[in-house]
Amino acid sequence: MKRHEALLDAALRCFVERGVLGTGIEEIRKAAGASPSSVYNLFDGLPGLTLALLTRTFERLFAHLAARVVRTEEAEDAVEALVEGHLEWILGHPDEGRFMYQATALEFDAGAQEALQARKAEMLAPVVLHLHRFVSGGTLPAWTPLELDVVLLGPSHEACRRFLAGAPLDPGWMRATLPRIAWQSVQPRPRARGRSSSAPPRRDP
């Protein structure tokens, strides 16, 4: 386990220095002081090592999100905690954030991709189950977890991706603005009195 984590840590350092596409397995092995056999025994090459590091990154991020979200009692607080937690973790772990955004753009083989998606669903289950309380109660839209993820975290992902790539975005603005925008995008809208929600707006001649 110690060698496993040392190789992942070395891979992260190399990926940050050279980029995911610019890093080879030998550079990681040398940075970790590991033998060639240990790398292939533990990870079966660079794709397996990259996938293992990506999985570890998701584990850490999703554990942080769950800790923030599951203690909330209202839909508004849950949504804002989700976005705040995402921003907090990514901005607090910029190396892992940069790696995550680079690695998620890679194409893994079908079996590895399926396994990763299954593991992500398992790790996100506490958050999904908690948000489902509000979906069932009508205070969040009856959307799939993927649809909620796109709407609630899409702007946060894009802002973090751009910030980590050097865009002049203010982290203070991100923290103050994006959680509120996420809630505004899904909060229930009051119906106008005497008008069906499906009725078209009245136009004066």
TrEMBL record:
<feature type="DNA-binding region" description="H-T-H motif">
    <location>
        <begin position="24"/>
        <end position="43"/>
    </location>
</feature>
<dbReference type="InterPro" id="IPR009057">
    <property type="entry name" value="Homeodomain-like_sf"/>
</dbReference>
<feature type="region of interest" description="Disordered">
    <location>
        <begin position="185"/>
        <end position="205"/>
    </location>
</feature>
<dbReference type="GO" id="GO:0003677">
    <property type="term" value="F:DNA binding"/>
</dbReference>
<protein>
    <submittedName>
        <fullName>Putative TetR-family transcriptional regulatory protein</fullName>
    </submittedName>
</protein>
<keyword id="KW-0805">Transcription regulation</keyword>
<feature type="compositionally biased region" description="Low complexity">
    <location>
        <begin position="195"/>
        <end position="205"/>
    </location>
</feature>
<keyword id="KW-0804">Transcription</keyword>
<dbReference type="Pfam" id="PF00440">
    <property type="entry name" value="TetR_N"/>
</dbReference>
<dbReference type="InterPro" id="IPR001647">
    <property type="entry name" value="HTH_TetR"/>
</dbReference>
<keyword id="KW-0238">DNA-binding</keyword>
<dbReference type="InterPro" id="IPR036271">
    <property type="entry name" value="Tet_transcr_reg_TetR-rel_C_sf"/>
</dbReference>
<feature type="domain" description="HTH tetR-type">
    <location>
        <begin position="1"/>
        <end position="61"/>
    </location>
</feature>
